[in-house]
Amino acid sequence: MENKSGYKINIINQDTFLLDWNEKPSEILLSKLLFLRKTLEKKPEVLLCRIGYRSLLIQLNKKIKNLEYWNQYFNKILSKIEKHKKLQGKKWIIPVCYENNFAPDIIKLSKALKLDVNELIHLHSKNTYKVYFIGFLPGFPYLSGLDPRLHYQRKAKPKLNVPKGSVAIGGKQTGIYTTDSPGGWHIIGFTPISLFNPKTSPPCFIKPGDTICFQKIDSNSLKDIEIGLQRGDYNFFK
């Protein structure tokens, strides 16, 4: 079902549907998704909402009986978005050690990109990245904002085990591995910040709409931060 607001409704099963926009991911579309999710989460019959690059998955606590009702409801919400201030997420500063011991692919990638290693680090750490959604691994943030000069295809043969905390580049994106995992991205650094902890509530502190800045640190600072994290007195919220 398509409609005037630009999305298509796809029925996934008896209690779940997907709103999908046929447009490129953008901050404007992200604002729509965030606003729609925030409103829907207040409805008692909505169990969960999950954001994608250009989609919103909605699960109800009952069967979908009247799709037209929901279609009209979504359109009504989206018609109000221009009247509301843009939702502002939190800003996080993520320290990254780019030294060779923590960046096994940085030299090879710099050569492939025809960049000096220091220039690669500068380009990676100078931008502010927008979090579009969480996926792939628990707490793994999908980010926009990678400098086009750092875009590079993923590895032809993925590694069987990429360590938790690895900061990497793959295609047009950069990201942080939140658990030990197989992966095909190029590892250019390491952060001691744990983006996912199943023992905390919520287990993932970074959310869609937030922004991330990478801060270059050396191995000595890395040790100091790890000690601060153990004591619970290191602040990476801006």
Polypeptide structure, described:
The chain has 238 residues and is α+β, with helices and mostly antiparallel strands. The chain has two domains: 7-83, Gyrase A, domain 2, CATH 3.30.1360.40; 91-231, Cyclophilin (Beta Barrel). It has five helices and 13 strands. The protein has helices at residues 27-40, 67-79, 106-113, 117-125, 219-231; strands at residues 7-13, 16-21, 46-51, 55-60, 91-97, 128-134, 141-144, 159-162, 166-170, 173-176, 181-183, 186-190, 211-217. It has a four-stranded antiparallel sheet, covered by helices on one side. Strand 6 (128-134) and strand 7 form a beta hairpin. It is elongated.
How many domain units? 2
Main β sheet profile: 4 strands, antiparallel
Q: Which CATH architecture of the largest domain would you pick?
A: Beta Barrel
Give a count of the beta strands, DSSP E runs of length 2 or more: 13
Percentage of residues in strands: 25-35%
The CATH topology of the largest domain corresponds to: Cyclophilin
Largest sheet, order of strands side by side? 1-2-4-3
Q: Could you give me the name of the CATH homologous superfamily of the largest domain?
A: Cyclophilin-like
Can you give me a brief rundown of this structure?
With 238 residues, the protein is of the alpha+beta class.
Question: Which key phrases capture this entry?
Answer:
Gyrase A, domain 2; 4-stranded antiparallel sheet; 238 residues; alpha+beta; 4-stranded mixed sheet; Cyclophilin
Strand and helix layout:
Blueprint (H helix, E strand, L loop, with lengths): L6 E7 L2 E6 L5 H14 L5 E6 L3 E6 L6 H13 L11 E7 L8 H8 L3 H9 L2 E7 L6 E4 L14 E4 L3 E5 L2 E4 L4 E3 L2 E5 L20 E7 L1 H13 L7
Parallel strand pairs: 5-13
Antiparallel strand pairs: 1-2, 2-4, 3-4, 6-7, 6-13, 8-11, 9-10, 9-12
